[in-house]
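Appendix B, example 12.
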Amino acid sequence: MPRASDNAPMAVTRCPRCRAEDIAADAHPTRVLGNGVETRVFVCRSCYRPTELEYRIACDAAGVAYRPLPIRDALRGLREFYAARLDERDEPEIHAALADIDRRLAIGPVSDT
């Protein structure tokens, strides 16, 4: 039977919006607008759509033109996020998420022709 002293501490990366989900291997890039300054954040799956809606409303209220987050910029941000998590803890889920992002980034953009 395991003892309490056998348990090792575990780092958890919480969603900054709900503080309930561990987003170390399942983060979603979005933005927050505060004082007219756009800040990129990573949230859990449940908070992604509400956070994006709050961003749109904040853009409208501040008179800032809303522009969708370019997919390749989002993927690059996710890659940095996962690489930082991988430095903190070496888990298969994070490796899989990072490999998926690398695979998506390797696909070239579709041309208009």
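The CA atoms of residues 18 and 47 lie 7 Å apart. The helical segments are 45-62, 71-88, 92-106.
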